[in-house]
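Query structure, 440 tokens:
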């Protein structure tokens, strides 16, 4: 039975959705609805679940902490779980010195932008106010993050209110200009950054997702791309701000993408998988250089004017600490390397399908791009939302899917077993086949 919802749902044409499937509980990789249907969680409950649902260690951590203190503020006070988490995060984050908490990824990126802008003000460099970023990026739905991660389809209605940024083209392997190779196009993008840096000394920061653009359709960066940008930032004295919210903590196969990509940032943001996907928390980490610029006498007003009610919430922090402990205990990153190979077994089966133009995969992330015609690469564009069609067809096959435009996103909980991932991918193939007539 579907539920008539009083909730205004996110990114949803509410007229299209009269009622919603109600999830009443979940265990492991499976969501269970009010009719008792089991749905394999193909998107890790919006890309954040690590261990599956109802993991006893994580549930118990929350339970035990809730008997001590449920929330206490970071304003004038601190708490042990938040302190412990900060030192845990610093330990795993080379080059980072302090942790600033928030409760969602968009806020963590807003904080990153404010830190980077104020860094220059605090250092007396008033002209450094411009923000450079990559086209097709996504950093959240708040005004600052919409300006930086500008997705025209989502945000054009607010364009007038958004501050300007310098947008650099980004190489997309599947859609490279005809006259260039992928490598040549990548070099072209890098040289554009260098040109802008050389002619404009007002650029304060370069902001990008680390390792891949996820909401931008699973655009995985070629090795060396991010490192080249990081080198240019260092050479030209521009702060590098990385967004690891969707890509860090194992999603792309390594704990942190910035270490894999050899690109130590000045500021980095984590979210999503930080608490294993159990409670809402995000973190913005800053290097010592950035942090030190905020120190001074009170009346110099160098401190960071930012703070949220639930900043450093001890319940969220305690479950994040337990989550990090489990990464070690179960050697999750190594496990991901093995599980990830299951995706490779499906490349051929997927690309053989009429609707599938391209398959992109790294670690525990796969994007399947659906096109009308493989040659013309024109994206499918049905009247009804592709997402709704795939959600409903996926449900018939016992999987929970949420597509992004014409991209079927496969983003399972990181600890999914090989058998369950195989089942998820097999059912995804069947879902694409059965959705074909509706989307063309
Ligand atoms: C790379 C990236 N940054 C930031 C965000 C925003 O996070 P939140 O939805 O928690 O605000 C997202 C969300 O998908 C994301 O993918």
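Result returned for the query:
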């Amino acid at each position: 039975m579907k539920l008539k919802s009083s909730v205004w749902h996110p990114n949803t044409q509410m007229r299209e959705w009269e009622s919603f499937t109600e999830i009443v509980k979940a265990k492991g990789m499976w969501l269970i609805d009010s009719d008792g249907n089991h749905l394999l969680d193909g998107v890790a409950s919006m890309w954040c679940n690590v261990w599956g649902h109802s993991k006893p260690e994580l549930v118990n951590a929350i339970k035990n902490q809730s008997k001590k203190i449920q929330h206490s503020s970071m304003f004038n006070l601190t708490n042990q779980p938040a302190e412990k988490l900060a030192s845990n995060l610093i330990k795993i984050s080379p080059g980072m010195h302090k942790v600033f908490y928030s409760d969602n990824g968009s806020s963590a990126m807003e904080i990153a932008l404010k830190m980077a802008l104020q860094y220059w003000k605090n250092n007396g460099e008033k002209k450094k106010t411009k923000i450079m970023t990559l086209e097709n990026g996504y950093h959240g739905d708040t005004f600052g993050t919409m300006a930086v991660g500008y997705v025209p389809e989502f945000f054009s209605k607010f364009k007038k209110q958004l501050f300007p940024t310098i947008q650099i083209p980004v190489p997309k392997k599947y859609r490279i200009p005809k006259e260039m190779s992928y490598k040549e196009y990548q070099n072209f993008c890098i040289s554009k950054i260098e040109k802008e840096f050389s002619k404009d000394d007002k650029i304060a920061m370069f902001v990008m997702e680390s390792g891949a653009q996820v909401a931008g359709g699973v655009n995985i960066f070629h090795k060396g791309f991010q490192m080249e940008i990081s080198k240019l930032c260092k050479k030209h004295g521009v702060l590098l701000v990385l967004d690891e919210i969707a890509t860090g903590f194992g999603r792309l196969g390594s704990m942190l993408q910035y270490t894999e990509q050899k690109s130590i940032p000045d500021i980095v943001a984590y979210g999503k998988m930080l608490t294993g996907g159990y409670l809402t928390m995000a973190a913005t980490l800053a290097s010592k250089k950035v942090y030190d610029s905020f120190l001074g006498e009170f009346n110099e007003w160098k401190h960071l004017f930012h703070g949220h009610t639930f900043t450093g919430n001890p319940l969220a922090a305690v479950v994040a600490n337990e989550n990090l402990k489990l990464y070690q205990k179960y050697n999750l990153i190594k496990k991901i390397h093995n599980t990830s190979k299951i995706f490779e077994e499906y490349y051929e089966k997927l690309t053989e399908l009429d609707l599938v133009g391209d398959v992109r995969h790294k670690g525990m992330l796969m994007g399947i791009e659906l096109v009308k015609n493989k040659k013309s690469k024109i994206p499918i564009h049905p009247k009804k939302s592709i997402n709704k069609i795939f959600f409903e067809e996926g449900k018939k096959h016992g999987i929970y899917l949420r597509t992004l435009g014409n991209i079927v996103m496969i983003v399972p909980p990181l600890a999914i077993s090989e058998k369950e991932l195989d089942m998820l991918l097999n059912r995804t193939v069947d879902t694409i086949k059965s959705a074909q007539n509706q989307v063309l």
